[in-house]
Amino acid sequence: MKPKALILLAHGTNRDQDVFEALDLCSADPEIVPLNLLHGRKKNWSDYQMLVLPGGFSYADALGAGKLLAIDMQTYFIDEIQEFIISGKPVIGICNGFQALVRAGILPGGSQGLEKSTLTFNAGGHFECRWITLRPVSQKCVWTKGLSEFIECPIAHGEGNFRVSDQNTLLRLSLQDQIALVYVHPDGSPANGAYPANPNGSMVDIAGLCNPAGNVLGLMPHPENHIHPWQHPQWQRGIERCSGLSIFRNGVKYAEEA
């Protein structure tokens, strides 16, 4: 059977249809569910094998990007989300979804201060909306495991600058293989913090993180917006490469086998 994917829809969320299409192309069974249906217990979390928090501007990013959605998750759904995560089901938060996972304390997860992290304003001080190049890193993360090809996709955020409180925390994230994706130059060479390859100033070029178990991924870029060859900005020049669909294939395959 196709794994059922729960796509959370809050006021201000967008790109939910894009994620729906990406999962559908990977032979999942996606369903977009407004939060009010979950509040009313008209939907059962246990019926789903995947969880997706898409991008956008949930609750108009009041109090900070993803902050109110994080409060919603902590207040009303923390037991269901924790059960989802502990059971090993794949979870992905994209852009605003990543921000919500971090602010809810779900990512990066773990102990010993790993919760002391944030996604803050871009180092350049303005909203970034353009294409970037990613290198998959983590072999623990079920969404990036085994991926070797670079991924090219858009970003669209003003608060994507990942920071931690100290270098020891950063080291632990690396040693525990939680750095899932990093920004690189278009030729694949390390960004080393340089703009525009690193679009927001994130420490050690972090674009995406997973939890210690590897089943929860958060990332700022939008791989769901490069799932067809014609979406690549150089498609008219005969260039088609580095699709974001590989991330979703991994997640669906893992859900099928779990």
Largest sheet, spatial ordering of strands: 2-1-3-4-11-10-9-6-7
**Global structural class:** alpha/beta
Count all strands and give the number: 11
Helix fraction bin: 10-25%
Which oligomeric form is depicted? single chain
Head-to-tail CA distance between termini: 12 Å
Range of strand content: 15-25%
- Helical stretch tally: 7
Rg result = 17 Å
Note the overall shape: globular
Largest sheet entry: 9 strands, mixed
Average pLDDT rating: 94
Order of helices and strands: EHEHEHHEHEEEEHEEEH
| Uncertain ranges | none
Question: Would you kindly provide a brief summary of this structure?
Answer:
With 258 residues, the chain is of the alpha/beta class.
Keywords:
258 residues; alpha/beta; 11 strands
Topology:
Layout: E1 4-9, H1 16-25, E2 29-34, H2 35-39, E3 50-53, H3 67-76, H4 78-86, E4 91-94, H5 96-103, E5 117-120, E6 128-136, E7 151-157, E8 161-164, H6 167-175, E9 179-184, E10 206-210, E11 216-219, H7 245-257
Parallel strand pairs: 1-2, 1-3, 3-4, 4-11
Antiparallel strand pairs: 5-8, 6-7, 6-9, 9-10, 10-11
Helix pairs in contact: 3-5
Describe the structure.
- By secondary structure, the protein is an alpha/beta fold.
- Helix content is 25%, strand content 23%.
- It is built from seven helices and eleven strands.
- The chain has a nine-stranded mixed beta sheet with strand order 2-1-3-4-11-10-9-6-7, sandwiched between helices. A two-stranded antiparallel ribbon has the order 5-8.
- Strand 1, helix 1 and strand 2 form a beta-alpha-beta unit.
- It is globular and about 50 Å long.
- It starts with a strand and ends with a helix.
